[in-house]
Design brief:
Length: about 120
């Protein structure tokens, strides 16, 4: 099982980025998968999650609700995070992780850096 996160970069405040999380070794619609981030000097936080295809439920942290959208492409076996209206406080290392039925995270991607600054 592997998760490969990509799509990070530098963007000005108000800009947009789309992160990708390519999965291998399992199908993305068979598991809940989440996006997490860790800003400098802060703890890692969960920001969005999408349940397995049977549930079709999504979750967003209050800090990103209305600005970020999580989605999944089963044909590409990839998870996405569309990030709009980015703010300086969104600067962080972003990770994707597979979520177990018990709510833990058993596999993590390597992280992709998002920097929001002018």
């Amino acid at each position: 099982v592997q998760l490969q996160a990509s799509g990070g970069g530098w963007v000005q405040p108000g800009g947009a980025l789309r992160l990708s999380c390519a999965a291998s070794g399992f199908t993305v619609d068979a598991y809940a998968i989440g996006w997490f981030r860790q800003a400098p000097g802060k703890e890692r936080e969960g920001i969005s999650c999408i349940d397995s295809a049977n549930e079709r439920r999504t979750y967003y942290a209050d800090s990103v609700k209305g600005r970020f959208t999580i989605s999944r492409d089963t044909a590409k076996n990839t998870l996405y995070l569309q990030m709009n209206s980015l703010r300086r406080e969104d600067t962080a290392l972003y990770y994707c992780a597979r979520v177990t039925s018990a709510g833990g995270r058993d596999y993590w991607g390597q992280g992709t850096l998002v920097t929001v600054s002018s």
